[in-house]
Design brief:
The chain is mostly beta strands and 58 residues long. It has one domain. It contains no helices and five strands. A hairpin with a 6-residue loop joins β1 and β2. The structure holds zinc ion.
C-alpha cells in the first residue's frame, strides 16, 4: 500500500445517478466503463458521465 485507497473516489452521476469515477485521462466515466449515460432501461442518453456537485444539494 503506497497511499492508495482500496476504493476509488466515486460520486453519483449528475444525470443518471450511477457511480462515476476518473479514468487514467482524468475524465469522468461510469463504473461500468461507459462514458455515455444510460437510462434505467439500458438505452443511451444524450449526456455523459459527470459527478454531481455537492453544492447543488439544497
Ligand atoms: Zn451518467
Amino acid at each position: 500500500m503506497s497511499g492508495r485507497s482500496p476504493y476509488p473516489r466515486v460520486s453519483p452521476c449528475a444525470h443518471c445517478d450511477r457511480p462515476v469515477l476518473r479514468d487514467n485521462d482524468d475524465r469522468w466515466i461510469h463504473a461500468d466503463l461507459s462514458y455515455v449515460c444510460r437510462d434505467r432501461w439500458g438505452g443511451l442518453t444524450a449526456t455523459t458521465a459527470a459527478p454531481v456537485q455537492p453544492r447543488q444539494r439544497l
